[in-house]
Amino acid sequence: MSLMRQFQSTNHIIKRLYKSGNALGNQIHTQNRLFKEKEDDFIQLEIKEELLKFPNVWLRDNCQCNQCYHPTAHSRILDWNKFNLDPKPVEVVKDENSVQVTWDDGHKSSYNLNWLQFRSFTPRHQKTYTETIYKPVKKVWHGSDFEKVCSKHDYNQILESDEALYNWLQDLSTYGIALIENTPDSETALDGIVNRVAFPRKTHYGFKFIVQHVTNTSNVAYLSSNLQMHTDLPYYEYCPGTNMLHCLVQTLGDGGENMLADCHYTAKYMAQHHPEQFKLLTETEVEWRDVGVEHGKEFFKLHRSPVICLDNHGEIVRINFSIPQRGSQFPGPIENVKPWYEAHSLFYELSHKFVAHFKTKAGNILVFDNIRVLHGRNQYEDKGDNVRKLIGAYVDWDEIYSKLRCLKVKLELEEGVQ
Ligand code: OGA
Ligand code: ZN
Ligand code: ZN
């Protein structure tokens, strides 16, 4: 939009705000509310024996008619330059499944009642929407419950059945971990699973990566020594969401098993029992780093972010943890250094206290939430023909949540979703 047009349209809206006599004046008195609530600012509807309130401005904004909403682009197309912030209904007619509203400018809107109920403003309905459509609720676990929380899924069923795909993704998002079994012994088998969800996330290690012992390695994971618990690629601002490790060959003797710890459990424990250290880990930015050459291309990645990242609601959105890939630059003040190391060490110790051990078998794909679950691996030794080999790929949470919602619509698990 040109500057001139931007000015004109802003002016237009301000003029209308004054004209409606509803906004700027009342804003002073109502403090936290932009608009003072008036009875005639809402339409009240009884839906399934519940009286629900819908603001006029919201209803008008979300009119579903072809002039206001494009049915195949699933997008709002109403012209904001002409939008009235204070529309008034002149007629409201409700039938069994829908409600028709005629507005004071003559425009007619129609809304499906399930669609409306799903978007209702009561805390209960908002919670239902958040948990069923936005993102499934996460359930935290202690390592001793690993057997119960790590559900098992069949490779072919995921490829063939939408229900199986849905169940796997739902478990993965709830617990941050799920195991796929009976995967064919092929380097391309993982592609089938990744493509069933969406597409792989490319990093400087490629679309897929091979985890095998390599002496002059570009990454310490490609050594047979003990791999301390970590999240992969914390140095990416947009960090790959899930990690899928297909075990083609496992060490037959001792070693090569994985350690897995739910950091949401660890972080919640810390918040409760060690609040100072928890605060330090949520507030102190760390510089995560990866430098080297892979597939003939140089990289020098840096990203600054705390170990425990919280959102505006205080919910954990991302965990970063990696001893090898933590840089030596400490962006915080010098007096925070020692306390931060102590908090970091406590997080590490607690994660080990809450850890689960699990050794994958050939044909398993271990799938986990890379920004929630710490993973590591015990030292192993390749002997003769028994050369441990994994193929890994990443899939982002955006794609997984998107697939889950599409499946909810397709499998008709919820009404009035879109
Ligand atoms: C990795 C990794 C685990 C394993 O490659 O980042 O964590 O079991 N590998 O080798
Ligand atoms: Zn309309
Ligand atoms: Zn890893």
Structural key phrases:
alpha+beta, Double-stranded beta-helix, four-stranded antiparallel sheet, single chain, disordered N terminus, six-stranded mixed sheet, 418 residues, 21 strands, 2 domains, binds N-oxalylglycine, NE0471 N-terminal domain-like, 32% helix, binds zinc ion
Hetero groups in this structure are:
N-oxalylglycine, zinc ion
The strand order across the widest sheet is 8-9-19-12-21-10
Low-confidence spans: 1-35
Q: Could you give me the name of the CATH homologous superfamily of the largest domain?
A: Clavaminate synthase-like
User: How much of the polypeptide forms β-strand, as a percent range?
Assistant: 25-35%
Structure explained in plain terms:
The protein is of the alpha+beta class and 418 residues long. It has 2 domains: 44-121, NE0471 N-terminal domain-like, CATH 3.30.2020; 143-409, 4-Layer Sandwich (Double-stranded beta-helix), CATH 3.60.130. It is 32% helix and 26% strand. It is built from 13 helices and 21 strands. The protein has helices spanning 3-20, 24-30, 56-61, 113-118, 123-134, 146-149, 155-160, 162-175, 189-197, 263-273, 275-283, 337-353, 397-410; strands at 42-47, 50-55, 69-70, 75-76, 89-94, 98-103, 108-112, 151-154, 177-181, 208-211, 227-230, 242-249, 258-262, 286-294, 297-305, 308-310, 316-319, 356-358, 365-369, 373-377, 389-395. The strands form 7 sheets. Strands 8-9-19-12-21-10 form a 6-stranded mixed beta sheet. The chain has a 4-stranded antiparallel beta sheet with strand order 11-20-13-18. A hairpin with a 2-residue loop joins strand 14 and strand 15 (297-305). The longest helix has 18 residues, at 3-20. The chain is elongated and about 80 Å long. Residues 1-35 have low confidence and may be disordered. Bound molecules: N-oxalylglycine and zinc ion (ZN) (2 copies). The site of one zinc ion has 6 residues, from loops. N-oxalylglycine binds at residues 211, 221, 227, 232, 245, 258, 375, 377, 390, 392.
